[in-house]
Each structure stands twice: as C-alpha cells, then as structure tokens.
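Hi R.,

Here's the chain you asked about this morning:
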Amino acid sequence: MSRIIVIGECRLDIDYPADFASGQAFARPSGLMASIALRLAAKGHNVLFLTEAAVDSVGDSVMQYLASHGVDVSHADRYTDGLTPLAACCRGAKPTLYTSYPPTDGFDITWPRLDDKEDIVIFGDYMTLSQRWSRNYLNFMSHVVSKGCQTVYVPGDISWRVSRVTKVMPQVFENLEMASAVMLDPDTCAYYFGTDSPEEALKKTVGYYCPTILFAGAGSATPVEVGKPLPDSLKSLVADILG
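And here is the predicted structure, written out as tokens:
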C-alpha cells in the first residue's frame, strides 16, 4: 500500500460568534493540509503528515488528535522556542492568526525514507511559501522529486494572510515546478493566476511549470483534468481529497 505524505501547517482554530450570547465558542485542530491528512486517513489511506507544532499544551492536543484519527505525526517538528499557532475565527470575518515561532528555520524534520515510487506527496497552503520554512522544505522537496514520487500541489486560500499575492508568486512558481498536478477551484485560480478558467491559466502561466490542473468547482467531488492525463491512482486520491 502506497503512503500519502502530506506537507503543511497545522494549528488550533477558535471559532466564535460575533455575539457570544447567540452561541458558544469551540476549538478544533485546523489548517488546510491537516484537514486533507485527516480526510485521507478517514478514507483508509496510510498518511504521514510532515508539519510542526510547539512542545506546549496546544501542540500536544493537536498532535494527539491527528494521531488518534489515524494520521502518522511521528516526523513532525516539535519546536521548544515558540508556541503552536492559534487562529481566532469570528463568523463572517477574516481569521486573526496568533503565532510565536522560534528564530531558527522551520520544517526541521527527520526525513522519512522515500524508497517507493508509489509514494505520493501532497503539499501546499501558506507554510510552503514561507521564508522561514523555505531552506529545509525545498531541500526535502528536491529529494522527493529526485525519487520520482507523484506530487500534488494544493495552494489553498492564503488571501487572509498575504496582503498582495505578487509577494509570494516566486515561491508559488517553485512549488508548481515540483508538482505533477496542481489543485485549484475558481477562486484560487483567479487569485493566483488572474482567471477562473483552468484552460486559460494552463495556457498563459501554469503550463510553463506544471503539466496538469485539477479543477473543482464548489461542492464538486470530481475535478476536471486539464492538461496532461494523470495515472488512475492519482485521480482516485484526488477524489478522496475532495471528499
């Protein structure tokens, strides 16, 4: 059975209503890539999640939650000089993120062995664009590509964390170059590439870096494949990512 290696951020989200009299706040482990890891584990996949969390009560709780739901977090970077990220999410407003990262480079993980071309790597969201992660993360991804693993890039919605997308586009292009396919929806396609048409995005920008766009509209469980056809194993996995 192939492993699914997921790379990205995890954090704790605090969801609360604007009027506390109308409902209670609640906390949940979150982050786009953490959610994908949990979804794939629930579908029966062998999932290894490469992420980071502080050695604090929040980090312990998030790691324990992931592990209890079948996600292998044994290679996570548990840093001591900082705090696990928290996001305060008021309904109807952009989240407010609270972070305290160590001054050293992030993604200081013990590399898992990659000795099987059946291993699939899914990576994305904000941390794969972060300068704090870049050195260690790019070294590992170069190793992934050299081993011939299939890779899926999921950029996600970072608009609430990045004031101008032009600031991170060089890193986005680097990620595209390492991807077998990129997953987009109409909003993220327009945010990163200036069009909600996957055909136009592939022709004008994406195709110079990555051969395939997997495009899913709202609520779609089957993405449209634009560009180079993918192996059936990857198509099946993408359907499980969507849900």
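One quick note: The mean pLDDT is 93.

Cheers,
M.
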